[in-house]
From TrEMBL:
The lineage of its organism: Bacteria, Bacillati, Actinomycetota, Coriobacteriia, Eggerthellales. InterPro entries: TM_pro_TauE-like, TSUP. GO terms for cellular component: plasma membrane. Keywords: Cell membrane, Membrane, Transmembrane, Transmembrane helix, Transport. Belongs to the 4-toluene sulfonate uptake permease (TSUP) (TC 2.A.102) family. PANTHER family: MEMBRANE TRANSPORTER PROTEIN, TRANSMEMBRANE PROTEIN YFCA. It is found in: Cell membrane. It is a multi-pass membrane protein. This is Probable membrane transporter protein. Pfam families: TauE.
């Protein structure tokens, strides 16, 4: 029963992931942690994040902005490593709540604002570095990365495809770490195999649904999801 419930939550979360290019793991993780346990859930979602995001990126490969992809990955990775180290030496629960509150406020502010406000270039570099740091500490840097990418890639197809490729790269690295740490137990492998058809279906459904969204509605959905991510972080941290 636990695996079936997780599969349903996974399908819902990854359909959203396919529509927007982000938010899949942040919505699936609380359910997975409760039903499968923390380490098993992380291992499953890292593997499926690589598979599903990679699939979506390949399906939309012509829309990937390769220069921004390289900039994002090369900037984030060193800070991801720093964040992983900080997570092992510091108590970070309070910081996670503050981060959740900031993301909630950013989502709410952009929803009520009548026009999009742009950050200066130097601030965007800071946002990108912080996205890597938060990703390393909490595996939740996607919300900050979205703030960066919304400004840099204003075409929704480029936004989705490029973010999907970023998550494919990062989840591949995390999955490799999980293998080394021995978290891919037979039970985890079984859940991964169960999730593969659901991931393919969710990707196809989400990829189709996003075609019906205008750029304006896509942006609004993005900010609604940021608001939801902030709430999830506040409630689960």
């Amino acid at each position: 029963m636990e695996k079936a419930l997780f599969l349903a939550a996974f399908f819902f979360a990854y359909t959203i992931q396919a529509v927007t290019g982000f938010a899949g793991n942040i919505f699936a993780m609380p359910v997975g942690t409760h039903l499968l346990g923390l380490h098993s859930s992380v291992a499953v979602l890292n593997a499926m994040g690589f598979f599903a995001c990679g699939l979506l990126a390949v399906m939309n490969i012509k829309h990937v902005h390769w220069r921004e992809l390289a900039k994002i990955v090369l900037t984030m990775l060193p800070f991801v490593l720093v964040g992983i180290w900080l997570d092992s030496v510091l108590p970070l629960d309070v910081l996670l709540k503050i981060y959740g509150l900031i993301i909630l406020l950013v989502g709410a502010k952009n929803l009520v604002s009548k026009r999009q406000r742009f950050l200066p270039e130097w601030a965007l570099w800071i946002v990108l570095a912080l996205a890597g740091l938060i990703q390393g500490m909490f595996v939740s840097g996607g919300a900050l990365l979205v703030i960066y990418t919304v400004q840099k890639l204003q075409d929704r197809q480029q936004f989705r495809a490029t973010l999907s490729m970023v998550w494919a790269v990062l989840n591949f690295i995390y999955a490799g770490i999980a293998v080394q740490q021995g978290y891919f137990t037979p039970d985890v492998v079984q859940v991964v195999l169960m999730c593969i058809p659901a991931a393919v279906l969710a990707t196809l459904v989400g990829n189709r649904l996003q075609r019906h969204l205008s750029q304006e509605r896509f942006l609004k959905l993005t900010y609604v999801l940021l608001l939801c991510i902030g709430l999830v972080l506040l409630v689960t941290s």
